Amino acid sequence: MADQVTALLQAMDDAEIIAVTSELTVAEVLVKPFRDGNIAGQRAFKTFLQPTPAFQIIPISRDLLEEAAALRAATRLKLPDRTTTPRNQEPNSQQDLPPARSSGPTKEIEPI
What we know:
With 112 residues, this protein is mostly helical. The chain has one domain (2-83). The chain has five helices and two strands.
């Protein structure tokens, strides 16, 4: 898994991809550091989870939550999985969700 994370971060640094997540990620990744009283872990995640040109953090909106509920009803994705799934640039697009695997030239990173 370390190789996958390294490849992901390198692709972001090289501007090959833009990573997108939602604000819900903050709550998800901080659970264990809070539970363990790990202040350094909390700081590390808070530092890493800052928006950059290669890493976008989208706010949770009612529309996004409704989309997540609809997708969760139709698939096995859990709510956090849907709110961190990449979206097309145009909001409310009928093609909002990318296919699980792309046959096109776009570089795709597998979820880890």
